[in-house]
Amino acid sequence: MAGMTVTADSLPDLVSLKVSLTGHVAEVTLLGPAKGNAMGPDFWRELPLVFGALDQDPQVRAIVLTGSGKHFSYGLDLPAMMGGWAGMLAGDALAGPRTEFLAEVRRLQAAVSSIAETRKPVVAAISGWCIGGGVDIISAADIRLASADAKFSVREVKVAIVADIGSLQRLAPIIGEGHLRELALTGKDIDAARAEKIGLVNDVYADQDAVLDAARTLAGELATNPPLVVQGVKNVLNARTEREVADGLRYVAAWNAAFLPSKDLAEAVGAFMERRAPEFKGE
User: Fold this and answer.
1) Vertex 203, ends 197 and 204: CA angle to 5°?
2) All domains of the chain in start order, with CATH
3) Bridge partners for 64 per DSSP
4) ∠ CA(100), CA(32), CA(133), 5° rounding?
Protein backbone atom coordinates (compact mmCIF):
# COMPACT_ATOMS: atom_id res chain seq x y z
CA MET A 1 0.00 0.00 0.00
CA ALA A 2 1.35 3.41 -0.95
CA GLY A 3 2.74 5.26 2.04
CA MET A 4 2.79 2.13 4.22
CA THR A 5 5.89 1.73 6.37
CA VAL A 6 7.82 -1.47 5.60
CA THR A 7 9.22 -3.07 8.76
CA ALA A 8 11.49 -6.07 9.28
CA ASP A 9 8.46 -8.31 9.73
CA SER A 10 6.71 -7.09 6.59
CA LEU A 11 9.57 -7.26 4.09
CA PRO A 12 8.68 -9.06 0.87
CA ASP A 13 10.36 -12.33 -0.08
CA LEU A 14 14.09 -11.73 -0.52
CA VAL A 15 16.55 -13.55 -2.78
CA SER A 16 19.97 -12.16 -1.84
CA LEU A 17 19.47 -11.30 1.83
CA LYS A 18 17.93 -12.89 4.90
CA VAL A 19 16.58 -10.75 7.74
CA SER A 20 15.84 -12.02 11.24
CA LEU A 21 14.90 -10.16 14.40
CA THR A 22 15.77 -11.16 17.96
CA GLY A 23 14.57 -8.69 20.54
CA HIS A 24 15.80 -5.30 19.40
CA VAL A 25 18.60 -6.66 17.18
CA ALA A 26 18.10 -7.33 13.47
CA GLU A 27 20.46 -9.65 11.63
CA VAL A 28 21.03 -9.23 7.90
CA THR A 29 22.77 -12.14 6.17
CA LEU A 30 24.15 -12.04 2.62
CA LEU A 31 22.94 -15.06 0.66
CA GLY A 32 24.34 -14.55 -2.82
CA PRO A 33 22.84 -16.50 -4.54
CA ALA A 34 26.07 -16.36 -6.56
CA LYS A 35 29.21 -18.06 -5.21
CA GLY A 36 30.78 -16.32 -2.25
CA ASN A 37 27.74 -14.06 -1.78
CA ALA A 38 28.75 -12.12 -4.89
CA MET A 39 26.56 -9.08 -5.43
CA GLY A 40 24.27 -9.38 -8.43
CA PRO A 41 21.13 -7.52 -9.53
CA ASP A 42 18.96 -8.91 -6.70
CA PHE A 43 21.41 -7.69 -4.08
CA TRP A 44 21.49 -4.13 -5.38
CA ARG A 45 17.70 -4.03 -5.56
CA GLU A 46 17.11 -5.51 -2.12
CA LEU A 47 19.84 -3.87 0.00
CA PRO A 48 18.27 -0.38 0.19
CA LEU A 49 14.82 -1.90 0.71
CA VAL A 50 16.07 -3.90 3.71
CA PHE A 51 18.03 -1.11 5.36
CA GLY A 52 15.26 1.39 4.70
CA ALA A 53 12.83 -0.95 6.48
CA LEU A 54 15.17 -1.50 9.42
CA ASP A 55 15.69 2.25 9.72
CA GLN A 56 11.93 2.78 10.00
CA ASP A 57 11.18 -0.17 12.31
CA PRO A 58 10.89 1.05 15.91
CA GLN A 59 11.54 -2.47 17.18
CA VAL A 60 15.07 -2.42 15.68
CA ARG A 61 17.77 -0.68 17.70
CA ALA A 62 20.91 -2.30 16.28
CA ILE A 63 21.84 -4.38 13.23
CA VAL A 64 24.31 -7.22 12.62
CA LEU A 65 25.50 -7.61 9.02
CA THR A 66 27.17 -10.88 8.05
CA GLY A 67 27.62 -13.39 5.23
CA SER A 68 26.34 -16.93 4.74
CA GLY A 69 28.76 -19.77 4.13
CA LYS A 70 32.51 -19.42 4.58
CA HIS A 71 32.90 -15.97 3.06
CA PHE A 72 31.47 -12.52 3.66
CA SER A 73 31.44 -11.55 -0.02
CA TYR A 74 33.50 -11.93 -3.18
CA GLY A 75 32.22 -8.48 -4.18
CA LEU A 76 30.48 -7.45 -7.37
CA ASP A 77 29.10 -10.31 -9.47
CA LEU A 78 30.77 -9.13 -12.68
CA PRO A 79 29.26 -11.69 -15.07
CA ALA A 80 25.74 -10.99 -13.78
CA MET A 81 26.12 -7.21 -13.88
CA MET A 82 28.15 -6.70 -17.06
CA GLY A 83 25.38 -7.94 -19.34
CA GLY A 84 23.20 -4.98 -18.48
CA TRP A 85 26.11 -2.57 -18.77
CA ALA A 86 27.49 -3.71 -22.14
CA GLY A 87 25.90 -0.96 -24.22
CA MET A 88 26.74 1.71 -21.64
CA LEU A 89 30.40 0.73 -21.59
CA ALA A 90 31.01 0.24 -25.31
CA GLY A 91 34.08 2.03 -26.57
CA ASP A 92 31.99 4.22 -28.87
CA ALA A 93 29.30 4.97 -26.26
CA LEU A 94 28.12 8.57 -26.56
CA ALA A 95 26.45 10.85 -24.03
CA GLY A 96 23.23 8.85 -23.77
CA PRO A 97 24.72 5.49 -22.71
CA ARG A 98 27.27 7.19 -20.49
CA THR A 99 24.52 9.14 -18.75
CA GLU A 100 22.69 5.85 -18.20
CA PHE A 101 25.83 4.38 -16.66
CA LEU A 102 26.23 7.43 -14.43
CA ALA A 103 22.71 6.80 -13.11
CA GLU A 104 23.55 3.12 -12.60
CA VAL A 105 26.65 3.94 -10.54
CA ARG A 106 24.61 6.38 -8.45
CA ARG A 107 22.02 3.64 -7.86
CA LEU A 108 24.67 1.25 -6.56
CA GLN A 109 26.17 3.99 -4.43
CA ALA A 110 22.77 4.74 -2.91
CA ALA A 111 22.32 1.06 -2.07
CA VAL A 112 25.56 1.00 -0.07
CA SER A 113 24.79 4.39 1.47
CA SER A 114 21.55 2.96 2.85
CA ILE A 115 23.74 1.13 5.38
CA ALA A 116 25.55 4.28 6.48
CA GLU A 117 22.37 6.35 6.50
CA THR A 118 20.25 4.05 8.63
CA ARG A 119 19.84 5.60 12.06
CA LYS A 120 20.53 2.27 13.78
CA PRO A 121 24.15 1.24 14.49
CA VAL A 122 25.43 -1.52 12.19
CA VAL A 123 27.99 -4.12 13.31
CA ALA A 124 29.63 -6.11 10.51
CA ALA A 125 30.82 -9.67 11.29
CA ILE A 126 33.32 -10.70 8.61
CA SER A 127 34.71 -14.15 7.86
CA GLY A 128 36.62 -15.46 4.87
CA TRP A 129 36.97 -13.22 1.83
CA CYS A 130 35.71 -9.64 1.82
CA ILE A 131 36.58 -8.26 -1.62
CA GLY A 132 35.76 -5.09 -3.54
CA GLY A 133 32.07 -4.41 -3.02
CA GLY A 134 32.30 -6.34 0.24
CA VAL A 135 34.75 -3.75 1.54
CA ASP A 136 32.43 -1.01 0.30
CA ILE A 137 29.57 -2.27 2.44
CA ILE A 138 31.62 -2.92 5.58
CA SER A 139 33.07 0.58 5.27
CA ALA A 140 29.48 1.85 5.52
CA ALA A 141 28.97 -0.07 8.79
CA ASP A 142 29.68 1.55 12.14
CA ILE A 143 31.79 -1.23 13.67
CA ARG A 144 33.65 -4.10 12.03
CA LEU A 145 34.68 -7.39 13.64
CA ALA A 146 36.54 -10.24 11.91
CA SER A 147 37.39 -13.88 12.30
CA ALA A 148 41.03 -14.94 12.11
CA ASP A 149 40.54 -16.34 8.60
CA ALA A 150 39.16 -13.09 7.16
CA LYS A 151 40.92 -11.52 4.18
CA PHE A 152 40.26 -8.12 2.65
CA SER A 153 40.99 -6.57 -0.72
CA VAL A 154 40.09 -3.27 -2.39
CA ARG A 155 40.63 -5.11 -5.66
CA GLU A 156 38.93 -2.93 -8.27
CA VAL A 157 42.25 -1.69 -9.66
CA LYS A 158 42.99 -5.31 -10.65
CA VAL A 159 39.96 -5.29 -12.97
CA ALA A 160 40.66 -1.83 -14.46
CA ILE A 161 38.01 -0.03 -12.39
CA VAL A 162 38.29 2.96 -10.07
CA ALA A 163 36.40 1.78 -6.97
CA ASP A 164 33.21 3.81 -7.11
CA ILE A 165 30.67 2.75 -4.51
CA GLY A 166 32.16 3.97 -1.26
CA SER A 167 35.44 2.48 -0.09
CA LEU A 168 37.60 5.34 -1.45
CA GLN A 169 35.34 7.85 0.28
CA ARG A 170 34.70 6.11 3.62
CA LEU A 171 37.91 4.25 4.45
CA ALA A 172 40.34 7.14 4.97
CA PRO A 173 38.78 8.24 8.30
CA ILE A 174 38.78 4.58 9.37
CA ILE A 175 42.27 3.39 8.39
CA GLY A 176 44.09 6.57 7.38
CA GLU A 177 45.01 7.97 4.00
CA GLY A 178 48.28 6.08 3.66
CA HIS A 179 46.81 2.64 4.27
CA LEU A 180 43.88 3.39 1.97
CA ARG A 181 46.18 4.47 -0.85
CA GLU A 182 48.28 1.32 -0.44
CA LEU A 183 45.23 -0.96 -0.58
CA ALA A 184 43.45 0.86 -3.41
CA LEU A 185 46.50 1.40 -5.63
CA THR A 186 47.91 -2.12 -5.28
CA GLY A 187 44.70 -4.14 -4.98
CA LYS A 188 46.63 -6.35 -2.55
CA ASP A 189 45.06 -8.78 -0.08
CA ILE A 190 45.47 -8.31 3.66
CA ASP A 191 44.70 -10.74 6.45
CA ALA A 192 42.72 -10.16 9.64
CA ALA A 193 45.82 -9.36 11.70
CA ARG A 194 46.82 -6.56 9.30
CA ALA A 195 43.21 -5.35 9.16
CA GLU A 196 43.15 -5.06 12.94
CA LYS A 197 46.53 -3.33 13.00
CA ILE A 198 45.40 -0.57 10.61
CA GLY A 199 42.00 -0.17 12.26
CA LEU A 200 39.83 -1.68 9.53
CA VAL A 201 38.39 -4.04 12.15
CA ASN A 202 38.13 -3.44 15.88
CA ASP A 203 38.80 -7.00 17.03
CA VAL A 204 39.65 -10.44 15.62
CA TYR A 205 38.06 -13.68 16.88
CA ALA A 206 39.06 -17.32 16.53
CA ASP A 207 36.51 -18.38 13.94
CA GLN A 208 33.23 -17.55 12.21
CA ASP A 209 31.03 -18.67 15.08
CA ALA A 210 33.03 -16.62 17.57
CA VAL A 211 32.91 -13.41 15.54
CA LEU A 212 29.19 -13.76 14.93
CA ASP A 213 28.59 -14.33 18.63
CA ALA A 214 30.69 -11.26 19.42
CA ALA A 215 28.79 -9.15 16.90
CA ARG A 216 25.45 -10.26 18.35
CA THR A 217 26.63 -9.52 21.87
CA LEU A 218 27.89 -6.07 20.88
CA ALA A 219 24.69 -5.26 19.00
CA GLY A 220 22.71 -6.38 22.05
CA GLU A 221 24.78 -4.03 24.19
CA LEU A 222 24.10 -1.15 21.80
CA ALA A 223 20.40 -1.97 21.87
CA THR A 224 20.23 -1.54 25.67
CA ASN A 225 21.16 2.14 25.43
CA PRO A 226 18.56 4.88 24.90
CA PRO A 227 17.66 4.42 21.20
CA LEU A 228 17.19 8.08 20.33
CA VAL A 229 20.50 8.99 21.99
CA VAL A 230 22.31 6.20 20.11
CA GLN A 231 20.80 7.49 16.87
CA GLY A 232 21.87 11.00 17.81
CA VAL A 233 25.45 9.92 18.44
CA LYS A 234 25.58 8.24 15.02
CA ASN A 235 24.04 11.28 13.36
CA VAL A 236 26.56 13.65 14.93
CA LEU A 237 29.51 11.41 14.04
CA ASN A 238 28.28 11.10 10.44
CA ALA A 239 28.06 14.88 10.16
CA ARG A 240 31.86 15.08 10.26
CA THR A 241 32.28 13.23 6.98
CA GLU A 242 28.94 12.95 5.16
CA ARG A 243 29.47 16.02 2.91
CA GLU A 244 32.95 14.86 1.91
CA VAL A 245 31.65 11.33 1.21
CA ALA A 246 28.74 12.64 -0.86
CA ASP A 247 31.02 14.90 -2.92
CA GLY A 248 33.48 12.06 -3.48
CA LEU A 249 30.75 9.67 -4.61
CA ARG A 250 29.42 12.18 -7.14
CA TYR A 251 32.92 12.80 -8.47
CA VAL A 252 33.87 9.15 -8.92
CA ALA A 253 30.53 8.37 -10.57
CA ALA A 254 31.20 11.11 -13.13
CA TRP A 255 34.80 9.93 -13.55
CA ASN A 256 33.81 6.35 -14.30
CA ALA A 257 30.96 7.40 -16.59
CA ALA A 258 33.59 9.26 -18.61
CA PHE A 259 36.64 7.02 -18.36
CA LEU A 260 35.66 3.48 -17.33
CA PRO A 261 35.11 2.15 -20.88
CA SER A 262 38.54 0.97 -22.00
CA LYS A 263 40.41 -1.85 -23.67
CA ASP A 264 41.90 -2.64 -20.26
CA LEU A 265 38.43 -3.17 -18.80
CA ALA A 266 37.53 -5.54 -21.65
CA GLU A 267 40.82 -7.35 -21.08
CA ALA A 268 40.09 -7.64 -17.34
CA VAL A 269 36.65 -9.11 -17.97
CA GLY A 270 38.00 -11.49 -20.63
CA ALA A 271 40.83 -12.63 -18.39
CA PHE A 272 38.39 -13.19 -15.52
CA MET A 273 36.09 -15.32 -17.66
CA GLU A 274 39.05 -17.26 -19.14
CA ARG A 275 40.78 -17.67 -15.76
CA ARG A 276 44.08 -16.18 -16.90
CA ALA A 277 46.27 -13.24 -15.94
CA PRO A 278 45.29 -9.99 -17.71
CA GLU A 279 47.70 -7.99 -19.83
CA PHE A 280 46.97 -4.29 -19.40
CA LYS A 281 48.22 -1.78 -21.98
CA GLY A 282 46.81 1.51 -20.70
CA GLU A 283 44.28 1.80 -23.52
Assistant:
1) 90
2) 8-208+223-273 (3.90.226.10)
3) 27, 123
4) 55
CA distance 88 to 90: 6
pLDDT at 6 over 70: no
107: left (phi over 0), alpha (psi -120 to 50) or beta: alpha
pLDDT digits (tens, 9 = 90+) for 128-152: 999 999 999 999 999 999 999 999 9
Residue 226 has a CB neighbour count (10 Å cut-off) of: 10
- Do residues 14 and 47 touch, judged by C-beta distance below 8 A? no
β-pairing verdict for 143-147 and 151-153:
unpaired
Model-level pTM? 0.92
Tell me if 77 sits within 8 A of 40, measured CB to CB.
Answer: yes
Residue 268's pLDDT band (cuts 50, 70, 90) = confident
**Region of residue 147 (left: phi > 0; alpha: psi -120 to 50; beta: else):** beta
Distance CA 72, CA 212 (A): 12
Q: Which of 213, 263, 146, 84 minimizes the C-alpha distance to 138? A: 146
Interior angle at CA 207, CA 122 and CA 71, nearest 5 = 65
pLDDT band at 85 (very low <50, low <70, confident <90, very high): low
One-letter identity of residue 49: L
Instruction: For residue 70, give Cα distances in angstroms to 122, 130, 147, 230.
Output: 21, 11, 11, 32
Distances (CA, A) of 10 to 21, 54, 60, 164, 224: 12, 11, 13, 32, 24
φ, ψ of residue 69 in degrees (nearest 5)? 75, -160
Give, as one character, the DSSP assignment of residue 201: S
Q: What span, in angstroms and rounded, lies between the C-alpha atoms of 152 and 192?
A: 8
Length of the chain: 283
User: What is the Cα 117 distance to its own chain's centre?
Assistant: 13
Q: Do 231 and 172 contact (CB within 8 A), yes or no? A: no
